[in-house]
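User: Could you walk me through two proteins back to back? I'd like the raw sequence and the structure tokens for each, with a short line separating them so I can tell where one ends and the next begins.

Assistant: Of course. Protein one, sequence then structure:
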Amino acid sequence: MSNRHLSRTIALQTLFEWDFYHRSKKLFGILERNIHDFAPNFEDDGFTHRLVKGVTKNLTEIDGLIQRFAPEWPLDQITIIDRNILRIGIYELENEKEVPPKVAINESIELAKTFGGMSSHRFVNGVLGSIYSEFIGSKDLNPKTDDEESKEETQKPQEVSAGGLVYRKDSEGNIYFALILDAINKWTFPKGKVGIEAVSGTMQTEADLASETLEETAEREVKEELGISQVEILDNIGSISVTVNPPNKPSYPKIIHYFLMKTDQENLNPEHGISCRDGKWFTEDETLANLGYDNSKQIFKKALKKIKN
């Protein structure tokens, strides 16, 4: 294990314990004990101390960025592990100029894979990747003035996602449709933001973003969220436009492209993570009854016409 990776691991252990006990324990007492127990004679030129001190000193600003880029999850509902991995990653992106941004993000992803839940690495990757994309080329991650925010929002291109309506037929010809339960407990179709690579756990470069087609994004997201390995894209169903309303930020438009897909797999193994809490097969009537969004129902009706034709 490299010195820097070990430093991040010890910093995470320290921040986790400090946070778990509601910040009542002496922070640097925890840190010294962890260094003594897990890395005696460890020398990293003060990097571990710098991480711990930097995160806690800038905690308000860092937590504000987490809330801004993960608006569907209140801070106290994010697991302690994921919360502190994000804090370390954001601190490094903002302050550790000698650490390349992709290294900081990939290291956070590795911590999430090692210490977090099954979908922690995807959540961490999504939040840090969005922060990186938002502030790339900036000198710092400090919040902009209202005028700067307004100007930036009008120039910023809309967010693009892609997903799929997946169906299967049983031996008797009955048709079933796959839905996921999203972060706010509504049934919908699997989808994901174009530009965040969740399989390999590494953030894509701008060239990668340009090379991934909408179909590729849709297929990747469907397979991951539903937990299936085989799916066939049959047709483009169309797209819907929605307005995203992040807290304390101007709203912005988002477009979601949907594709009709077919699979022969009966068993689903949904992620049970932040963006996908569950996944099930439904009949046609059950799908219409359970879909939680009107625009999803419109997409479903378009898909039905294509299937029946």
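----
Protein two, same layout:
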Amino acid sequence: MGKHYVTLESGSRIKVVPQRGQLFVCELGCCCGQTERDFAPLSHDLYHGEWERRKLRNKVHLTFTACLGPCSLANVALLFFAGRSIWFHSLNSSELVVALYDYIEEMVKATRYLPPPPLLSEHIFPGYALEEGRAKIG
């Protein structure tokens, strides 16, 4: 992927490095990680630490966000990669978060979408309805 430049209204040019993907982790809403409301914990430090350790900063952007919904499936994450959206639910353990990052690294190395591994497949749900009410997973 090449570098792109954007010219701002002020006339200054900013270099933009296109990302291969983006991982949104629900953390700031009403359910995900909210143990005081009887939801499973969510480890901000693990998500951020794995992202840093694997040097994904200029490849897959990490965003901690408010509600991604649906709350009944808390701890939700949304991965955009290679033009696809992959929704994950109930990422309630360190093992699942590490597996998610292993999966992301595999796709970064392959420079394309790959099907999720079996451990993560059990945690995928259709986040968006497509034409005629059909949803595509992965």
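Residues 94-110 form the longest helix (17 residues).

Let me know if you want the two compared in more detail.
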